[in-house]
Specification:
Elements lengths: L2 E6 L4 H12 L6 E7 L4 E7 L2 H11 L6 E7 L14 E2 L5 E9 L2 H10 L9 H16 L3 H9 L4 E9 L5 E7 L4 E4 L4 E4 L11 E4 L4 E6 L5 E4 L5 E2 L3 E3 L15 H7 L1 H9 L3 E2 L4 E2 L2 H4 L2 H5 L3 E6 L1 H18 L3 E5 H4 L10 E7 L5 H12 L3 E6 L5 H5 L2 E4 L12 H21 L4 H22 L2 H11 L4 E6 L4 H15 L2 E6 L16 E6 L5 H12 L4 E7 L4 H5 L2 E5 L8 H18 L18
Bound molecules: 5-amino-5-deoxy-1-O-phosphono-D-mannitol.
Length: 615
Amino acid sequence: MCGIVGYIGHREAYPIIIEGLRRLEYRGYDSAGVALFDGTDLKISKTKGKVSDLELRINEEITKTGKLGIGHTRWATHGVPNDVNSHPHISNSGSLVIIHNGIIENYESLKKELITRGYKFQSDTDTEVLINLIEEVKTKEKVKLGKAVQIALNQVVGAYAIAVFDKTRPEEVIVARLGSPLAIGIGDGEFFIASDASPFIEYTKNAIYLEDEEMAIIRFDKKIKVRKIKDDSLVDPYMQELQLNLEQIEKGGYDHFMLKEIHEQPKAIRDTFRGRLLRNEAIIKMAGIEDNMKKFLNANRIIIVACGTSWHAGLVAEYIFEDLARIPVEVEYASEFRYRNPVISENDVLIAISQSGETADTLAAIKMAKSKGAFVFGVCNVVGSSIARETDAGAYTHAGPEIGVASTKAFTTQITVLSLIALRLARAKGTISSSDFRRYLLEMELIPEKVEKALESDKHIRIVSDIYKEASNFLYLGRGFNFPVALEGALKLKEISYIHAEGYPAAEMKHGPIALIDENMPIVVIATKAEHYDKVVSNIQEIKSRKGKIIGVITEGDTVVRKLADHVIEVPDTIEALSPLLTTIPLQLLSYHIAVMLDKNVDQPRNLAKSVTVE
Ligand code: M6R
């Protein structure tokens, strides 16, 4: 995690760096800092806390001039979040400056060695070790900064995206990456460096994304040079044209990114199936699937790996794939999968789901499955992300930038893509009739409108939120396709309101969780019209007789649960397999309103970050 940003060129660096940090704050917000060089002085200001705290501090501490600058927003790994551990870090000579996203795993042994050579350390960070290692190499080997960085990185075990400069040679910045993302914006006589392209989209649409184990020497008066860190070979980097625009990364009148992203879901889902779902022709067209159809059809099974909300989307997909395409599916937490010794064969297909495309555990699971011969398919949102590039083929979700740490539109668009894949495979396998296939396509096309309808309950959900905002615990229950939605609803509430919440399959309640139920326990039950509707109604009766407070998510017009529940939130009717796309909407809004009422930081909940690039 952590966000890094840098600038070298003809403009004042500070406004670019500080705005860039604001845009990257989703990556971590334990501390922030900047370093500026104005041709004479190196000025560093850093503080525990957010970018807004940094701005206050900078105003007191330094002048904001200089055409070379780097900045960092931190998600703490080594060392508590405090001023000293904040980045940028400087070398013992005071000449070299670094910002770093990642973890240097062997930093302790490197630090010991450096201490024996007289180096002193101010912070507890691995990053301060790295900058002093670079300095040691530079001095001992009498090499230029780029070479010193390269030699030092070859001694390092871990992950990094770094930017380094030397105040005695301010015409160049060295950047490198392994495992953490790094984009370089190419302007006219100026370069931008960032964890993603958002800090520089108003300045240039041309960017290079460094690959793992690559470094670049950026001289503002020259062309950029990209090299392999290991063998020093020159690389001809691929220049990408950015599709991102400023509007997409602004709040657009909403109080929070999360709320904006919740309301963007009708459009996001439409964008996801645009050009893929061709109802008039009764086909689903997805290049990544067509090109690899044999792999899917001959697969022994599909293994889905993901983390957090993406894992929940994987669980929904398990139900859909098995139901429609009759392909066995296993869904695994990437973090567990990568560290066991799973039985994987060449006939397995692994689907990796990730909004950011940077999640370290998911990336590691992909690499492991590939090494065992599996075909790996990615479902990512961020175009050009590490996972998108590491997989053999894939399908983007096209949700647009998701900035709120709590995933919302990423979840529904992941389910949309996975449903399209399941339907396409079902058609190819002949496990779905042509009339059912057409029915699904028609219904899928109606989902965005139905999401819009579900969003109309917002005011009512605010009232319900007000009633339960002080509860200490919540239970979320669902069955079948909606069991993963219960898990997702509980995760949403936990991560942004800090209220303890658990999701369960409704029928599991009697095996333990029912003991928790009393008059203080709100229980959100997804009780839409479905195959097991009657059984869910029985579960609601059981809760009611133990005085639990029931918030039912029901199908429009349902009177049975309406009579039993304390509150109901209606969603439009749809095919059961597609219902998670609707039932999840009120749960997102419920958690949002509760968190706002509790005055929590909805977009940047404590201890979290949007992109989890550490193990
Ligand atoms: O970018 P990814 O989809 O790989 O991220 C996975 C999880 O870190 C993410 O879904 C996380 O659980 C969200 N904060 C949930 O809202």
